[in-house]
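Quick one, tokens below. Sequence please?
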């Protein structure tokens, strides 16, 4: 997925990790036109939906890898570091296992 560098976040939130004895999963998707991302001070405008929303990510999708790096045994902090670095670059590739049990690669692009 891609996003403009001046937009904070890809429009999804994560939870889980090795420290919580569960896989990393999508805990929230930003769908609307004006959303709070990551903290109460960051308001982001997604007039056509967030990159995550456009890619079809869903709450409870399990994230298997980020940019071809398996994250299944990582802690939440390790995954957050990868996400932060990719946020600065404006792109990320996710492989997720959907809540229906399917493996899918999600490539997201922000129109712009």
């Amino acid at each position: 997925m891609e996003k403009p560098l001046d937009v904070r976040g890809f429009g999804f939130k994560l939870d889980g990790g090795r420290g919580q004895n569960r896989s990393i999963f999508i805990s929230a998707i930003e769908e609307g036109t004006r959303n709070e991302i990551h903290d109460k001070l960051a308001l982001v405008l997604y007039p056509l939906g967030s990159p995550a929303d456009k890619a079809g990510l869903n709450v409870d999708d399990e994230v298997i890898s980020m940019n071809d790096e398996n994250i299944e045994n990582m802690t939440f902090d390790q995954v957050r570091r990868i996400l932060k670095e990719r946020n600065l670059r404006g792109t990320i590739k996710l492989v997720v296992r959907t809540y229906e049990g399917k493996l899918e690669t999600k490539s997201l692009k922000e129109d712009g």
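Helices lie at 51-55, 76-89. The chain has a mean pLDDT of 78.
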